[in-house]
Design a protein that fits this description.
Blueprint lengths: L2 E7 L5 H10 L5 E7 L10 H11 L6 E6 L3 H8 L3 E6 L2 H18 L2 E6 L9 H9 L16
Parallel strand pairs: 1-2, 1-4, 2-3, 4-5
Length: 151
């Protein structure tokens, strides 16, 4: 059984993240979406609210669970028994950075990382952009997966 983590995302509710999870589930048995806790990070939704939003969205898919964590990605992977890390990327620059991190994780733990590009039409949608729009009170419904309750 392949159990993967999708870690380090502070606001993992954008359509780009949902597309990565959907595609990863075509070849992975189970995914644990990790919500990174960082008290110094400016997030619009508190950790428990983010966890509920994402859990509710995937409630009909028993292959996806959501867990908050505040440790290193490799420690989180060990904690949940993952044997694979999934990372979503939007640009070639993201790819180069994530490839370096993946190599370090592999050397330290032996855990492989799969890098999945966000679907082309979603490349401009990042959590940072969504948070910025939210801070100005803008409608972000087009940037979140259809059916996800962000209310």
């Amino acid at each position: 059984m392949t159990r993967a983590i999708f870690p380090g995302t502070f606001d993992p509710f954008t359509v780009g993240h949902a597309s990565v999870v959907r595609r990863a589930l075509t070849f992975i048995d189970e995914i644990v979406i990790g919500i990174g806790i960082n008290e110094n990070k400016n997030t619009h939704f508190p950790v428990e609210r983010r966890k509920k939003m994402i859990s509710d969205y995937y409630r009909d898919n028993p292959r996806v669970t959501v867990q908050a964590y505040d440790c290193l990605t490799i420690d989180f992977a060990r904690e949940v028994g993952a044997n694979l890390i999934v990372r979503g990327i939007r640009t070639v620059k993201d790819f180069e950075y994530e490839e370096t991190i993946a190599d370090i994780n592999r050397k330290l733990t032996g855990i492989e990382t799969i890098l999945l590009f966000t679907e082309p039409e979603l490349t401009c949608v990042s959590s940072t952009i969504v948070r910025e729009l939210l801070s100005y009170g803008k409608d972000i419904s087009q940037f979140v997966p259809e059916g996800m309750d962000i209310g």
